[in-house]
Structure prediction request, 358 residues.
Amino acid sequence: MTQDLLDLYSDYLLCTFGQATATGLEQVVEGSVSHDQITRSLSGKKRTGAELWRIVKPFVRKIQGEDGVMIVDDTISEKPYSDENDIVCWHYDHTSGKVIKGINLLTALYHVPSCGLSLPVEFRLVAKTESYVDKKDGKTKRRSPISKNEYYRTILQQAVNNQIPFKYVLNDIWFASAENMNYVKHKLHKEFVMPLKTNRNVALSADDKRKGVYVRVDEVEIEPNAVRLVYLEDVSFPMLLAKQVFKNKDGSTGVLFLVSSDASLTYDGITSLYKKRWTIEPFHKSLKQNAALERSPAHTVSTQSNHIFASLCAFIKLEMLRRKTKLNHFAMKARLYLHAVQSAFEILRQMQPVTVAA
Prediction:
């Protein structure tokens, strides 16, 4: 896909309110670009994280700051009616606890609190290119030769290589492995805030760790609004543990155990930093609802991959427009929708529709 066509297609993704098709774009631009041109572009070489960085880099340089954080998370673009292939396959969705058919997108989102903006700077699509027979049910299934934790480390390393200024890495519980913790601290020379599962074992002193004396994290006595030094198995440095108690929407009480590699943080510092991780949720929501992530009928790996790439580019445009207009993504989309309805209404009135009267 050429840069001009990518620019045109990503604009179209922001303007369309239905399926994003090559025919639809051809009609919108009144034939200045043909259906075949669009289809050939989408069917071309798959766009990569390196190409996304070339596009987003000038915008990152405008907003970057030392308070920036790097958030890593994944989402599933649901494709219930698409034929299965290397990227459209079954994935476990840890947010719903269900197995979902779709495309698993892993993104590094750079968030800068001082300006309130967030930009995707790296991504990977989980490709399940290997087949195997599940011993439990005897069914043939797909798997990826590269784990999501490997992708996690790869995209963070690339973010560091790209010289994006950030001190902290934030992620959810599914990436809080000992290997990832060691990698962020020692290989990347960054700090992190991560949640732990309640059954994760911790030692309460260096001596306990040497002796192999561990307790479940939910059994650790810790004062409210305080932190405690703990040691994890296979992690080579001590961490601060904070117990955050909060109210769920249904009125129930939730508990989150957070650990940080930064020994200088307070309880408020840890919880305030982790709160920034939730920036990834509106990113996923806007990507799906405002940038047409899930509204493409593309059916090949290349066209599906390039459509997702264009959706990421469309999000970048929305975010930079948000900086300019001071409107959020949904307000901008609503304004576009209102103009579309007004235009349709005016055309209808010009057609002199039949008047109905009682």
Observations:
- The CA atoms of residues 102 and 216 lie 35 Å apart.
- The chain has a mean pLDDT of 94.
- The first strand starts at residue 69 and ends at 78.
